[in-house]
Amino acid sequence: MRITIFNGSPHKEQGNTHIMVEALTAGAREAGAEVENVFLADREINPCIGCFACWFKTPGRCIHRDAMDQLLPKIVESDVIGFATPLYVDNVSGILKNFMDRLIPLVDPHMETDEHGETRHLRIHEKPRYVLSVSNCGFPEQSHFEVLRVLFRRVARNMNCRLLAEVYRGGGPLLATTDPDLRPFAEQYKVLLHAAGKEAVGHLGLSHETIERLEQPLLPDPNYAEIYRQRTNRRFDERLAGEANP
Ligand SMILES: Cc1cc2nc3c(=O)[nH]c(=O)nc-3n(C[C@H](O)[C@H](O)[C@H](O)COP(=O)(O)O)c2cc1C
């Protein structure tokens, strides 16, 4: 199974999103998958200008000559296309959305209906067969991913793919914590991600039990969100003070 992860964080390898991707894909590799990470922030990707040249003038080929010339073939060759992003304004980052808009040359403009009678475009390529979505956010709750849960179901449906897994983490900055009291919880979550990556590849999806575990707060404390807010606010104050009095 070939998995390509398109990561829309400007922090690239240093990002909290990548911490998640690394753990998940280590598990996926253990289950036999071949994984490639693409950091979109490193690539020159022009915004779609909506000219539809890729449909009617030069079918399958965009007017822009940029990094998408190398990235579209990667999608066509992958079994799983992974979208990884920090949550920005309750949505995917602009870097990832810009890339997603540029996927339009991969579909035939003609319309068909899906199994529910709803319209979508025809696919040109057999692959990819699965979508994987990964995200983290700065607020502690899992509720902030409401938009992404809808979005990636729609994206998978529009691409005529199955959703292999969606993995979202509120309180994402805790994954990079150096606080010795909190580090074990981040490490524990990474172990869970590793197992989930292995399971997703081995079973072509996640069990309800794994999904439930992935949705648990990072700290097993009923006051987790309040602890997180207070801790984060303290760190913000320290940073502000540091910047005001260097
Ligand atoms: C422009 C911008 C918008 C953001 N919007 C949200 C948001 O709507 N909800 C949230 O919980 N966090 C939000 N965040 C916080 C990021 O999701 C968070 O810092 C995340 O850990 C960054 O991941 P990364 O290190 O992979 O880039 C936002 C951050 C930025 C810079």
Brief overview:
The protein has 8 helices and 7 strands; from the N terminus they run βαβααβαβββαβααα.
Structure description:
With 246 residues, the protein is α/β, with parallel strands linked by helices. The protein has one domain: 3-Layer(aba) Sandwich (Rossmann fold), CATH 3.40.50.360. Helix content is 40%, strand content 19%. The strands form two sheets. Strands 2-1-3-6-7 form a five-stranded parallel sheet, with helices on both faces. The chain has a two-stranded antiparallel ribbon with strand order 4-5. The radius of gyration is 19 Å and the shape is globular. Flavin mononucleotide binds next to helix 1.
**Strand line-up across the major sheet:** 2-1-3-6-7
Give the biggest sheet.
5 strands, parallel
Counted by DSSP, the helix tally is 8
- Which residues form runs of ≥5 with pLDDT under 50? none
Instruction: Give the C-level CATH assignment.
Output: Alpha Beta
| Percent of residues in beta strands | 15-25%
Ligand inventory: flavin mononucleotide
Distance separating the two termini? 51 Å
How would you name the CATH homologous superfamily? Flavodoxin domain
Structural class: alpha/beta
Q: Provide the succession of SSEs.
A: EHEHHEHEEEHEHHH
Estimate percent helicity: 40-55%
CATH topology term: Rossmann fold
Form type: globular
Radius of gyration: 19 Å
The strand count comes to: 7
